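ingest -> fold -> write
write: protein_1
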Amino acid sequence: MSTATTNPGSTDLNVGRNTLILATTMAVYSAVLQLVAAVSSLTFVLVTGVRGLLGLGPAIFLVASAVTALPAGRMMDRVGRRPVIASGYLFATAGCALTALATNVDSTPLLILGFLLTGSASGIALLIRTAAGDMYPPEHRARGISYVLFGSVFGAILGPAVFGPLFAGRELDADALTVPWLAAGGISLIALGLVLMVRPDPKVIAERIGGIEDAGPAAPLREILVRPGVRPAMLAALASFGVMVSVMNLSGYVVVEHYHHTQSDVFPIIGAHVLGMYALVLVVGTLIDRIGRGPALSAGLLVMALSTVGLLWIESVVATAVLLFGLGIGWNVSFVAATAQLVDAAAPAERGKILGFNDQLSALLGAALALLGGYALDSIGVAALALGATALVAAPALWLAPRWALAPASRR
């Protein structure tokens, strides 16, 4: 891949303006994600009455995200980033509205359809980082991705501010969930309008930064997968994302049903987790550009392992929030490093495809872990969730660490 020939901050490319807009849409994404994490399991149980499959709600969401990710990534490479991202927020608006209706009329089919649309929206919204990677050259790419992801810090504040008061002092039943889901649909509609303001399309910026006039045909996925650094990055991404989303989506049930706290206590915990996911992202992006992608992949996974094993011994709201904050930080480090590594290995016309494939596998793993974790949580207890999650992130971290320690600095 060629080096940058254009200043990434040049006004003719509107990089700064586009970065700000995309960061704002990430704030909405993270706020809606908090609602999904906090109440998707409970919403499913309250509407369907089936407690034994409490992990099915998050699993539906994650499977929809997985099924959507690769086609959305391929479409991004064909028609550009903006129209695909906009369609994601349209799905989010419709999905949250249908879920709200389902909670009001106790309709399982409507609930499943709402979860499917909202999950598809999540799969597309997460690909915003493709657009972020497009707008910055390799030596500043992790930092550029972090600028866009930093918008989610404000989402960590927005989520509790919007949804927390809607649950305060209310009896926890299906009807109590109607207004929060409607609010999530409303803010998603605002994000849709913001995405349409992005000009020019980030894919165009990537081509201009790289001096690409005729890039030729994109390589097939199987060829991209064997490029140096791709498979280690995907392994770390799979482990970190799968564990993060499964623990996050089941934590609301743990806090309410196992620790016997109130539903309103869930939002500060999830807010702390989302804050951990993104609060230090500006520092993390710069650090990854300096120390290399590989060491960051292993370090992030190890931080996640320390956070999940702590679930064995804590029950208070504050302590749970601290552990979920740590889980978010560890995911942040490994996620940004893996994204930068995959974008480095792909041309602009290939990035949506490889990131979409990565997200598809990650979300499918997350769905499987949510189902398995939900069953284990209901039948065995919190220890099963904590130990299983810890093993899944610690094993690849320990396997990858010697690989990067022995690699030349230029390959890290």
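write: protein_2
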Amino acid sequence: MQPTLLAAIAARNDSRALRAAEQAGAVLFVTVLTAIAAQISIPLPFTPVPFTFQPMVVLVGAAALGSRLGMASQIVYLALGIAGLPVFAVSPTLPHGAARLLGPTGGYLLAYPFAAFLAGWLAERGFDRRYLTAVVAMLCGLAVVFTGGVLWLALFAHPAMGVEGAVRVGLTPFIAADFLKVLAAAGVMPGLWWLKSRR
């Protein structure tokens, strides 16, 4: 297992308390970035699921933090949303607070911790060091998000539409745009590793 970017940076500190504080700060930082990304939300007329940049923040953040801390950042994010803080995407139609997890986007949100864990796990095995493997790691994490979202739509939020309908409104409209987002986001971690090596 290879060190994550956060672990490599924190390794410079001999103090265990300082390293723990750095980890907590990094988790909260990714949580805040996820909440900010949620506010960049574009409603689409043909689907109840809005277009956001959250998945990319979830995956890049997890790659930097690793599996355990990456997952923790998204659990904290969900906890803040359940508590009623305005961290979920702004929407005139989707419910607020804990009720958001029962709506059409609930499956995507609930999949974030698992997608973060997978992306972080792959980063711990060096997938974030090179562009092509970073693309693979991001696509794997994104697949978890879409699987959770589509299954939630088909089984709980809108069971009448079935799996085929859930794929049509919860996956198909986002494939091209999210693939382009993955291609862009996958360059972040190798770039940060390169900067670290230069320093």
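write: annotation protein_2
The CA atoms of residues 157 and 189 lie 35 Å apart.
The radius of gyration is 17 Å.
pipeline exit 0
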